Amino acid sequence: MTIKPLIILPDPLLRQVSKPVETVNDEVKKLADDMLETMYDAPGIGLAAIQVGVPRRMLVLDVAKDGEEKAPRVFINPEIVASSNDRSVYEEGCLSIPDYYAEVERPASVTVRHLDREGREQIIEADGLLATCLQHEIDHLNGVLFIDHISKLKREMVIRKFTKAARLRGAKAI
């Protein structure tokens, strides 16, 4: 397995809509393994393929608590097919927006259809942290960042901060 470099705000790739995975093959499985390795190394609880520079509709996550056994999951071509009217608020962060956290309100539960690591169709009903994480990562696949769910003023401050840091590094900006 390989730890891949993370794409960081304001890289324009983060705003790209990812394309579906056509076939679940060995290359896709290797990408899933590399993404899990990268996510654990970061450390994080979720990672979309676009965050490692691959614009494909694929994400990995593991919401096991500290001290619990790892529970890695792979979601290929995930799609939210239902969401609750009930809302919940979690403090979210993002590996592509390091060291920034904000409270985000989202549906409290979602139903997601996806393919698993073996290419079998699955449907999962999720609530709590799992629901939030799935929504956050599926947003990435649609070019949406968690900062798009906060006030315009806060979002613009974050983007300015990361754009300035990118300029200092000589990176490309949105």
From TrEMBL:
InterPro entries: Peptide_deformylase, Peptide_deformylase_sf. It catalyses: N-terminal N-formyl-L-methionyl-[peptide] + H2O = N-terminal L-methionyl-[peptide] + formate. Binds 1 Fe(2+) ion. It comes from the Bacteria. GO terms for molecular function: peptide deformylase activity. Signal peptide: none annotated. The lineage of its organism: Bacteria, Pseudomonadati, Pseudomonadota, Alphaproteobacteria, Hyphomicrobiales. Keywords: Hydrolase, Iron, Metal-binding, Protein biosynthesis. The keyword Iron applies. Fe cation binds at residues 94, 136, 140. The gene is def. Its cofactor is Fe(2+). Its EC number is 3.5.1.88. Belongs to the polypeptide deformylase family. The active site is at residue 137. CDD domains: Pep_deformylase. The keyword Ligase does not apply. Removes the formyl group from the N-terminal Met of newly synthesized proteins. Requires at least a dipeptide for an efficient rate of reaction. N-terminal L-methionine is a prerequisite for activity but the enzyme has broad specificity at other positions. This is Peptide deformylase.
